[in-house]
Design goal:
- There is one protein chain.
- The protein is mainly alpha-helical.
- The protein has a domain at 10-135: Orthogonal Bundle (hpI Integrase, Chain A).
- Helices cover 52% and strands 5% of the residues.
- The protein has ten helices and two strands.
- Strands 1-2 form a two-stranded antiparallel ribbon.
Protein backbone atom coordinates (compact mmCIF):
# COMPACT_ATOMS: atom_id res chain seq x y z
CA UNK A 1 0.00 0.00 0.00
CA UNK A 2 1.35 3.41 -0.94
CA UNK A 3 1.05 6.26 1.51
CA UNK A 4 -0.48 9.47 0.22
CA UNK A 5 0.43 12.93 1.37
CA UNK A 6 -1.55 15.97 2.48
CA UNK A 7 -1.57 19.05 0.30
CA UNK A 8 0.68 21.29 2.37
CA UNK A 9 0.63 24.43 0.21
CA UNK A 10 -2.53 26.54 0.65
CA UNK A 11 -1.92 28.13 -2.74
CA UNK A 12 -2.07 24.68 -4.34
CA UNK A 13 -5.29 23.94 -2.45
CA UNK A 14 -6.84 27.06 -3.97
CA UNK A 15 -5.61 26.07 -7.42
CA UNK A 16 -7.11 22.57 -7.05
CA UNK A 17 -10.42 24.13 -5.98
CA UNK A 18 -10.37 26.44 -9.00
CA UNK A 19 -9.61 23.56 -11.39
CA UNK A 20 -12.37 21.40 -9.93
CA UNK A 21 -14.90 24.23 -9.85
CA UNK A 22 -14.21 24.95 -13.50
CA UNK A 23 -14.70 21.32 -14.47
CA UNK A 24 -17.53 20.12 -12.25
CA UNK A 25 -18.98 21.91 -9.21
CA UNK A 26 -19.85 18.52 -7.65
CA UNK A 27 -16.15 17.64 -7.52
CA UNK A 28 -15.31 21.08 -6.12
CA UNK A 29 -17.89 20.62 -3.35
CA UNK A 30 -16.62 17.10 -2.60
CA UNK A 31 -13.01 18.30 -2.32
CA UNK A 32 -13.90 21.37 -0.26
CA UNK A 33 -16.05 19.39 2.17
CA UNK A 34 -13.38 16.68 2.34
CA UNK A 35 -10.53 19.00 3.29
CA UNK A 36 -12.72 20.88 5.78
CA UNK A 37 -14.24 17.88 7.56
CA UNK A 38 -11.55 15.22 7.77
CA UNK A 39 -14.08 12.57 6.76
CA UNK A 40 -12.95 9.35 5.15
CA UNK A 41 -13.88 9.04 1.48
CA UNK A 42 -16.37 6.25 2.26
CA UNK A 43 -18.25 8.58 4.60
CA UNK A 44 -18.14 11.51 2.16
CA UNK A 45 -19.48 9.43 -0.72
CA UNK A 46 -22.30 8.00 1.39
CA UNK A 47 -23.68 11.38 2.43
CA UNK A 48 -27.23 12.05 1.29
CA UNK A 49 -28.91 15.34 0.47
CA UNK A 50 -30.83 15.03 3.77
CA UNK A 51 -27.51 15.08 5.63
CA UNK A 52 -26.81 18.65 4.47
CA UNK A 53 -30.20 20.19 3.67
CA UNK A 54 -33.26 20.49 5.88
CA UNK A 55 -36.83 19.83 4.66
CA UNK A 56 -37.10 23.40 3.34
CA UNK A 57 -33.90 23.12 1.32
CA UNK A 58 -31.82 25.23 3.73
CA UNK A 59 -28.24 24.17 4.45
CA UNK A 60 -27.90 22.54 7.86
CA UNK A 61 -25.50 23.99 10.41
CA UNK A 62 -24.07 20.53 11.14
CA UNK A 63 -23.61 17.17 9.50
CA UNK A 64 -24.47 14.08 11.53
CA UNK A 65 -23.42 10.59 10.42
CA UNK A 66 -22.29 7.20 11.59
CA UNK A 67 -18.74 6.49 10.44
CA UNK A 68 -18.53 3.36 8.33
CA UNK A 69 -15.11 2.24 9.54
CA UNK A 70 -15.82 2.25 13.26
CA UNK A 71 -19.59 2.69 13.57
CA UNK A 72 -19.18 5.78 15.76
CA UNK A 73 -21.64 8.64 15.58
CA UNK A 74 -20.06 11.88 14.48
CA UNK A 75 -21.40 15.39 14.24
CA UNK A 76 -19.54 18.48 13.12
CA UNK A 77 -20.38 22.02 12.02
CA UNK A 78 -20.21 22.92 8.35
CA UNK A 79 -17.57 25.66 8.20
CA UNK A 80 -17.75 28.72 5.95
CA UNK A 81 -15.67 27.34 3.07
CA UNK A 82 -17.55 24.03 2.91
CA UNK A 83 -20.86 25.85 3.35
CA UNK A 84 -20.10 28.14 0.42
CA UNK A 85 -19.09 25.22 -1.81
CA UNK A 86 -22.19 23.22 -0.91
CA UNK A 87 -24.45 26.21 -1.58
CA UNK A 88 -22.85 26.77 -4.98
CA UNK A 89 -23.24 23.09 -5.77
CA UNK A 90 -26.83 22.70 -4.59
CA UNK A 91 -28.23 26.14 -5.48
CA UNK A 92 -31.17 25.74 -7.82
CA UNK A 93 -30.90 21.94 -8.06
CA UNK A 94 -34.02 19.87 -7.77
CA UNK A 95 -32.99 16.97 -5.59
CA UNK A 96 -34.76 14.44 -3.43
CA UNK A 97 -33.59 14.21 0.17
CA UNK A 98 -32.75 10.51 -0.18
CA UNK A 99 -30.41 11.08 -3.14
CA UNK A 100 -26.67 10.83 -2.69
CA UNK A 101 -24.99 14.19 -2.22
CA UNK A 102 -22.23 13.26 -4.67
CA UNK A 103 -23.96 11.07 -7.24
CA UNK A 104 -22.37 9.05 -9.98
CA UNK A 105 -23.39 9.78 -13.54
CA UNK A 106 -23.78 6.03 -13.96
CA UNK A 107 -26.91 4.39 -12.66
CA UNK A 108 -29.84 5.79 -10.77
CA UNK A 109 -29.11 7.21 -7.32
CA UNK A 110 -25.66 5.66 -6.99
CA UNK A 111 -22.83 7.47 -5.22
CA UNK A 112 -19.70 8.57 -7.00
CA UNK A 113 -17.23 5.68 -6.86
CA UNK A 114 -14.00 5.84 -4.87
CA UNK A 115 -12.08 5.18 -8.06
CA UNK A 116 -13.71 8.08 -9.89
CA UNK A 117 -13.17 10.37 -6.89
CA UNK A 118 -9.50 9.32 -6.94
CA UNK A 119 -9.20 10.04 -10.67
CA UNK A 120 -10.79 13.48 -10.34
CA UNK A 121 -8.62 14.50 -7.39
CA UNK A 122 -5.41 13.05 -8.79
CA UNK A 123 -5.91 14.72 -12.17
CA UNK A 124 -6.59 18.12 -10.60
CA UNK A 125 -3.53 17.82 -8.35
CA UNK A 126 -1.28 16.83 -11.25
CA UNK A 127 -2.68 19.71 -13.32
CA UNK A 128 -1.55 22.23 -10.67
CA UNK A 129 1.88 20.62 -10.34
CA UNK A 130 1.55 18.61 -7.14
CA UNK A 131 4.05 15.78 -7.45
CA UNK A 132 3.56 13.97 -4.11
CA UNK A 133 1.47 10.81 -3.94
CA UNK A 134 -2.18 11.85 -3.96
CA UNK A 135 -5.29 9.84 -3.24
CA UNK A 136 -8.72 10.33 -1.79
CA UNK A 137 -7.20 10.02 1.70
CA UNK A 138 -5.22 13.17 0.84
CA UNK A 139 -8.30 15.23 1.72
CA UNK A 140 -8.46 13.79 5.25
CA UNK A 141 -4.71 14.20 5.73
CA UNK A 142 -4.87 17.78 4.44
CA UNK A 143 -7.51 18.55 7.06
CA UNK A 144 -5.32 17.17 9.86
CA UNK A 145 -2.12 18.75 8.58
CA UNK A 146 -3.56 22.25 8.32
CA UNK A 147 -5.37 21.95 11.66
CA UNK A 148 -1.99 21.15 13.21
CA UNK A 149 -0.22 23.97 11.36
CA UNK A 150 -2.91 26.42 12.54
CA UNK A 151 -2.01 25.56 16.13
CA UNK A 152 -4.70 23.03 17.03
CA UNK A 153 -3.59 20.73 19.82
CA UNK A 154 -2.47 17.36 18.48
CA UNK A 155 -4.67 15.54 21.01
CA UNK A 156 -7.73 17.33 19.61
CA UNK A 157 -6.77 16.37 16.04
CA UNK A 158 -6.13 12.82 17.26
CA UNK A 159 -9.68 12.70 18.64
CA UNK A 160 -11.19 14.19 15.46
CA UNK A 161 -9.43 11.57 13.33
CA UNK A 162 -10.11 8.73 15.82
CA UNK A 163 -6.44 7.81 16.21
CA UNK A 164 -5.08 5.89 19.19
CA UNK A 165 -2.10 8.15 19.92
CA UNK A 166 -0.63 11.57 19.10
CA UNK A 167 2.37 9.85 17.46
CA UNK A 168 0.11 8.08 15.00
CA UNK A 169 -1.62 11.36 14.20
CA UNK A 170 1.70 13.18 13.61
CA UNK A 171 2.92 10.45 11.28
CA UNK A 172 -0.47 10.28 9.56
CA UNK A 173 -0.63 13.99 8.74
CA UNK A 174 2.91 13.95 7.37
CA UNK A 175 4.82 15.96 9.94
CA UNK A 176 8.36 15.63 8.65
CA UNK A 177 11.77 15.80 10.31
CA UNK A 178 12.14 19.25 8.76
CA UNK A 179 9.01 20.35 10.63
CA UNK A 180 10.43 18.99 13.87
CA UNK A 181 13.87 20.56 13.25
CA UNK A 182 12.16 23.89 12.61
CA UNK A 183 11.11 23.99 16.27
CA UNK A 184 14.78 24.01 17.30
CA UNK A 185 15.66 26.66 14.75
CA UNK A 186 12.81 29.06 15.51
CA UNK A 187 12.60 28.77 19.30
CA UNK A 188 15.39 31.09 20.37
CA UNK A 189 14.79 31.64 24.07
Amino acid sequence: MEFVQPIRDKGKIKQVKDILKGRNVRDYALFTLGINSGLRISDLLNLRIADVLDEKGKLNDRIWLREQKNGKAKGFPIGPSASKALREYLDGKRVARDEYLFPSRRGVNKPLSRIQAYRVLNDACRTVGIKERIGTHTMRKTFGYHAYKEGMDISVIQKLLNHSSPGITLAYIGITQDDLDNVYMTLNL
